[in-house]
Design brief:
Nucleotidyltransferase, domain 5, 2 domains, three-stranded antiparallel beta sheet
């Protein structure tokens, strides 16, 4: 019998989505997926989705829309950790964009080695465990993850077994997405001098834009129900912010 995922639906606004994230209040809401430019902090795109849509889902399509509509030549993009997915990293690479994405902190199972303790040997396409034994490639799942498995006979006598796996078969399994190389490149970008400088400005630009919307333009709450109404409120707010930004920059030039 297949397991079914329960999707919570609001009785007052069915088009909204239930958001449940770490360190965030659980609630029915809408999300404003926003892009700002690096130089003037002008909002170039504002797209609204139900609150249960992951940040990374609409990103590449919205990026393409801006490039096609405005003729932007996008050289770099700075994003928070919610966008650190294999699909987004590959998408940025395919478009020739220097991607900088914040590190996502994963919580490993208490008492077990984190994945970072297993070294990937790209030349031989295998992982090396903390005890210097090999985990070799076995298969690729439909979701695009390559599985690397240890030799259970060696694991059975390994002094680090209790810190490695709790599997009844005494076999360790490591997964690696087929686009993992693109994600690793984004990590290297983040650690580079230009990447650090770019990500620092992300907080000053897009986070400031969100803060101004909430504190100065009443965007902390939706005034009307429904996706279309929420979208109209976000777009009108973005237009107001842009007019203020443009007026400020024009005044400096005069």
């Amino acid at each position: 019998m297949e397991e079914t995922k329960e999707i919570r639906v609001s009785s007052t606004d069915p088009e909204s989505g239930f958001m449940s994230r770490d360190n965030k209040q659980e609630m029915f809401c809408y999300l404003d997926h926003r892009t700002t430019d690096f130089k003037f902090n002008i909002i170039t795109d504002a797209y609204v989705t139900p609150g249960n849509v992951h940040d990374s889902v609409p990103y590449l399509s919205r990026l393409d829309r801006q490039i096609e509509r405005f003729g932007f030549k996008v050289e770099a993009s700075a994003l928070d950790s919610g966008y650190l997915t294999s699909a987004v990293c590959k998408g940025l690479s395919d478009r020739g964009i220097f991607g900088v994405i914040a590190h996502r902190r994963f919580k490993p199972t208490k008492g077990l080695f984190p994945k970072a303790k297993f070294t990937y040997d790209k030349e031989n396409d295998l992982y090396i465990c903390p005890n210097k034994d090999e985990l070799t490639y076995r298969t690729t799942t439909r979701e695009g993850y390559r599985e690397y498995k240890s030799d259970p006979k060696k694991c059975a006598t390994c002094p680090l077994l209790s810190q490695c796996t709790r599997s009844k078969t005494k076999q360790k399994v490591i997964t690696r997405h087929v686009w993992e190389d693109h994600k690793e490149q984004v990590r290297l970008n983040r650690l580079s001098p230009s990447g650090k400088e770019l990500y620092k400005f992300r907080k000053e630009k897009v986070e400031r834009s969100f803060a101004d919307s909430k504190e100065l333009h009443g965007l902390r709450y939706c005034r009307l129900r429904g996706l279309r109404n929420a979208s109209e409120q976000v777009l009108l707010t973005a237009a107001c912010q842009n007019m203020k930004k443009i007026a400020t920059h024009l005044a400096r030039l005069s």
